[in-house]
Amino acid sequence: MTAVLILPGLFGSDEAHWQQFWLRDQPDSICVVQNDFDNPRLSDWMPRLEETLDAVGEAYIVAHSLGCLLAANLAGTAAARQVKAALLVAPCDLQPTHTLHPGKVVFGDMPMGQLPFPAKVVGSLSDRYMSLDCLTLVARCWGAEIKNIGNAGHINTASGFGRWSGGYQLLEGMKSRTRRRRSVAELPMCPVR
């Protein structure tokens, strides 16, 4: 069974957060636990993600907020080859994040390069961490599908997202497409005449 790596964002995910339910409900899920969720540094978080990917082999990623930027920063690394697909929920724009939490986040520039793995970005019309226009631009730059789920805030506990069956369905759809893509790639080549 391929692991599902859960990547929380700033301050981690509280017990009522949909990521915590995911960890309890989905036996193949593993949380990538960072040493300091309250003062995230890309230089600290990335090695932990790469170590976890090395330990589990291939994995799906389910990220929230700053965890989405961590996943996007995998682009250009050897570890990115181990990611089968990523579900990136409510990514944060670093500018409003720095305004809302001054001095907390050291993550460099907003990653805007194409992701080397299939990805779906899930966003909201009412997320104070990323406008819909920015979400659309980021998804386009990442080469990701986009799913707007309406007025859902930051898609976290504060906006009413505890157990989130819609999230499970989104990842299952991505897994199904990944399996179909692999089975087509494994078909024998037609002989050349």
From TrEMBL:
Q: Which UniProt keywords apply?
A: Hydrolase, Plasmid
Hydrolase in keyword set: yes
Task: Give the residues annotated as coiled coil.
Answer: none
- Which GO molecular-function terms appear in the entry? hydrolase activity
Signal peptide segment: none
Please give the Gene3D superfamilies that the UniProt record associates with this protein: alpha/beta hydrolase (3.40.50.1820)
Key word Transmembrane helix present in the record?
no
User: What is this protein's name?
Assistant: Alpha/beta fold hydrolase
Q: What organism does the UniProt record list as the source?
A: Rhizobium tumorigenes
